[in-house]
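Weekly modeling sync, notes
Attendees: AB, CL, MP (scribe)

Item 1: holo prediction request
CL wants a bound-state model with pyridoxal-5'-phosphate before deciding which constructs to order. AB pointed out that an apo prediction alone won't tell us much about the pocket. Agreed to run with the ligand included and paste results into these notes for async review.

Input as submitted:
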Amino acid sequence: MESKIIQGKSIREWKKQYPLMNKIISTEEVFWTNSKYGKFEDAIKKVSLTEEDVKDAEERLKRFAPYIAKVFPETQKTNGIIESPVVKIPNMQRKIEEMFNKEVLGELLLKCDSHLAISGSIKARGGIYEVLKHAEDLAIENNMLTIEEDYSILDSDKFRKFFSKNSIAVGSTGNLGLSIGIMSAQLGFKVYVHMSADAKQWKKDLLRSKGVTVVEYASDYSKAVEEGRKQAEADPNMYFVDDENSTNLFLGYAVAAYRLKKQLEEINVVVDEEHPLFVYLPCGVGGGPGGVAFGLKLVFKDNVHCFFAEPTHSPCMLIGLMTDMHDKVCVQDFGIDNITAADGLAVGRASGFVGKTLKNLISGAYTAKDEKLYVLLSTLIDSENIYLEPSALAGIPGCIELFKDEAGKKYIENNNLKDKMKNASHIAWATGGSMVPKDVMETYYKKGKELSSHKI
Ligand SMILES: *Cc1c(COP(=O)(O)O)cnc(C)c1O
């Protein structure tokens, strides 16, 4: 294994160049800070996407709001805008401080994308946005719609019949399939969701109940995506939602940042030079957390510090960023198995587009063990009565590691944050959970309680 050659170097050489690789390969938890992290004003110049692109996505979501409110009545209270609450979780903060024997300076908050309407995960941002954009493009091209119209007219037989001549395909570990499937089926599209082996049975059942064609694979996410892509290439009326490369998905996620700014103002959470914001984002292929991080950097610039969180068995973004190899390498190359209970994060090869876009904007990345995710899952239920799926807990330990790990301490020092940490806010981005069936959640909870009695 040590002599296996990956991108021109043996594993031994990779380890020598990046000492952290030793721990990563033995699936130990690590906290990595990005030496290429730069000042916002410099870093943003190297990115082709702009604030205007995000604003354009925000406007599009506003145009669709009357339609969304009509077909998904649960969104009526937010007038058809799909948004989640951000809440302070002081009890959980105290619990984890005790559990890991480390004080977290500042205040811990939770961004509850777990409770986003329609599909109960962060995918209700990018995934739904991309389907809406595609529907709008088709309708406008065919002179059936103008952007001045009330989009609730899309809820009609005329439009459903029109969309039914078109189909949409996507590859997913589960949640992206849910959001694309539910939204596309509602509009009238034919939908094919290619599911990896990680995908939970209840997600497949739910999709089938909505008339979605679910194709199952015995292998991982990359295979499901590849098959979806192939299927769409063979059919001119089929649109492929490309989780690995889509700027539309990315922009749909980025809109979250502008809305978060308003939400924080409403609860008197200040973000400025004296009040830094730290955000910890569970990361799979990278589109969701990458898009959100991109938006956050546009909004808060150098006052926000974003970290990706991955399972110890699927650290694809971390390896891609650290080695600058992005999608040229996968975790399996290094003998890491990509098997994790965090199904939303079970991705072996990160998006090259996202890694390169965030290269100088992301502060770092860390990994967490599955056992820890379960323990945090039951602890969050006991302390705050909030129910998340395992993937979504990955954002929680970031604030501990920042203060505990030597690399985290150095990051605070190097960025002149030491005196400001008592004023800091830490947001763990809770990426999914509200749609998990009760009995499944019960087994997660029990597992967490059981593991809590051991050392984690
Ligand atoms: C998809 C997903 C993520 C990560 O999003 P990516 O775009 O794959 O990086 C995180 N948590 C949950 C619950 C997800 O479903």
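Recorded for review: The domain at 122-244 is CATH 3.40.50.1100 (Rossmann fold).
Action items: CL to compare against the apo run; MP to circulate these notes.
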